[in-house]
Design goal:
Layout (H helix, E strand, L loop, with lengths): L1 H9 L7 E3 L10 H7 L1 H17 L3 E3 L2 H4 L12 H16 L1
Helix pairs in contact: 2-3
């Protein structure tokens, strides 16, 4: 995050920043990946990164809660409907 902030400050431009958190792990995530990429690990990462973003005055938008109960065919991708909602949320946040 610090690198992006430094770059924006050096360019003297008013650049909005938004940290977008990761999706929740789907129910079909392979068991070998659950320990390192499962919901417990993702939740702690999301909370800690949001704290760091806010400490640097960057808006934080978490996608974890939105995708926690969404259906995923591979445990990672959620399809077009979820992607459209995420894009709309990002557009609304950056527009305000």
């Amino acid at each position: 995050m610090d690198e992006w902030i430094t770059l924006a400050d050096a360019s003297s431009r008013n650049v909005p920043f938004l940290w977008v958190g990761p999706n929740a792990a789907g129910h079909l995530k392979p068991p070998a990946q659950i320990l390192s990429q499962g919901n417990n690990a993702l939740w702690h990462y999301t909370v800690e990164m949001a704290k760091e973003a806010r400490a640097r005055e960057i808006d934080a938008l978490g996608m974890y809660n939105m995708t926690l109960q969404a259906t995923s065919w591979d445990g990672s991708g959620y399809g077009q409907k979820v992607a459209i909602v995420q894009a709309m949320m990002i557009g609304i946040d950056l527009n305000t």
